[in-house]
Design goal:
The chain has 9 helices and 6 strands. The chain is α/β, with parallel strands linked by helices. It has 2 domains: 172 residues, P-loop containing nucleotide triphosphate hydrolases (Rossmann fold, 3-Layer(aba) Sandwich), CATH 3.40.50; 76 residues. Helix 6 crosses helix 7 and helix 7 crosses helix 8. The longest helix has 19 residues. The termini are far apart.
């Protein structure tokens, strides 16, 4: 039997607090923490698995992109989607509205960028009181020709099976999901969310190394207490100053100052 090594980029998408980060943490490190931590921007985690396919054994390196679940950060989200070869759409078993968000926001947003890549559905937190019926998730999954799993990042229920199912799909053992229009996406978020989105995107682009830039963004946002779900103007202005401090040694004083000035203008309240 043949053996080969491949790498694939996969996204985890869904509303905030559905458990995307917890699923990755459980799968990669076999750990769970009840404390909720908002993902700021994107977080990339690597997992290497071995899959026995029909004609060969494949060592698959999955680059798992955990994407900010706050609606309105379309700049960060769309740039993160590029190059993805598989998606896990996650909803919260205790919140039916998060299932509606998948078809109303996350699916059309992602597929408008990546096209018909394979994906699976996860109804997470299934160890709690489930308010999403199997018929509801099956109807959505059947529409897109995709498998679904009731998962629990806490107990580990179906977590490994779900990721392996996606791994097999991105390797071509399942047909690609069709591109089905789910209607026009209405961009959510107030002007401060849009400003935060623009500033983060601008910093990562100017920094030159997206992953390193995003790591700096996360640290600086935590330092100033910037809540991406409800950013304040004061926290955002402090955030811009800290990004300037982080950029000076890399870009030089003049370039960093120009970037700081441009980002301050992004915070301007609309007329």
């Amino acid at each position: 039997m043949q053996f080969k090594r491949v790498k694939r980029k996969a996204l985890l998408l869904g509303d905030g607090a559905v458990g995307k980060t917890s699923l990755v943490r459980k799968y990669v490190m076999d750990k769970f923490d009840d404390k909720y931590i908002t993902t700021i921007g994107t977080k990339v985690t690597k997992k290497v698995i071995e899959l026995r396919m029909k004609a060969e054994t494949v060592e698959l390196t999955m680059m798992l992109w955990d994407i900010l679940g706050q609606k309105g950060y379309t700049g960060i989200q769309r740039s993160s989607y590029k190059g993805a070869e598989g998606i896990i759409f996650v909803c919260d078993a205790t919140r039916p509205e998060t299932l509606k968000s998948l078809e109303g926001y996350w699916i059309p947003e992602a597929l408008s960028v990546v096209g018909g890549v394979p994906f699976v559905f996860a109804v997470n937190k299934s160890d709690l009181e489930c308010r999403i019926s199997e018929s509801d998730i099956k109807a959505l999954a059947d529409k897109y020709g995709s498998p679904y799993f009731f998962t629990s990042a806490k107990t580990g229920k179906n977590v490994e099976d779900m990721f392996k199912a996606l791994g097999r799909a991105v390797l071509g053992e399942a047909p690609e999901s069709p591109v089905i229009s789910a209607g026009k996406v209405v961009e959510a978020g107030n002007w401060l969310i849009r400003a935060t989105d623009s500033i983060i995107q601008d910093f990562c682009a100017q920094y030159g190394d997206y992953d390193m830039g995003m790591a700096i963004v996360r640290r600086k946002a935590e330092e100033v207490g910037l809540d991406v779900k409800a950013p304040t103007e004061l926290a955002l202005r402090k955030f811009v100053l800290l990004l300037y401090d982080a950029e000076v040694d890399v870009k030089g004083e003049e370039a960093a100052r120009q970037n700081r000035t441009r980002r301050k203008l992004m915070i301007k309240r609309p007329e």
